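Hi V.,

You were right to ask for the full record rather than a summary. Here it is.
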Amino acid sequence: MFKVQMGDFEGSLSDLVEPVEKQEIDPLEISISGVTEQYLEYISRDRGLDFETAVEFLAASVTLMDLKTKALLPETVDHESTSDEEPETSEELAEHLLEYKTFKEAALFLDEKFKIPGKIYGRYGDMGSYIEGYFKGVDESPALEGIGLKDLLSALENIAKGRARGESDALEVSRRRHSVADKIQELLPTLSRNKEGRDFKDIFTKDVTRAEVIVTFLALLELVRLQKIRISQEKNFGTIKIYPVIPATEVKE
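Predicted structure:
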């Protein structure tokens, strides 16, 4: 079972959300990036992919970022304030809002893919069921050859570790669009023309932050689910390659 350590707290993500909602823990003390790094480290260990934990991670991250965003935003967003105090630095706020938007958009994207009426998953409602179903659908796709979702997540962890989270990155990235749909449109023409295959890690070379890496990864998962691309690994710890499934002539510019 995945447990997160944050200051004096140690427990499940669900257990962390509750005291934050009750304001027993200051949401500003929660590092979403720290939670993400701990989760990526957890799934990289040889323990098998835990879909329930994956669902809890994404759903709880969105909830925590929602609470943190409300705490970071200046009071003047909701009503006039006579205080001259400034909120957190503009760079910190921009970075957090970007991170929140990315995870929120990712959750909504997955939410739209598997709408299963009447299914409920714990405290997070239908969203958890959709995400769980989506991950399972990708993991069982014939477009994954000699590799599973667990292996892709482990490769993702190695890529995410090398991404900066500094203020300059946040300001630069804040000018970019962070949509999974946009990323699919960006990737598909290039991947469809590369019949010799492309290294998995090379897909992320333009991604400056962890937020961008996650969006690109979700775009690849959707292309796998749609069987527009196939991802192959010929041997354990070998190079992960991405190949097109559809001919380049069918790809619209």
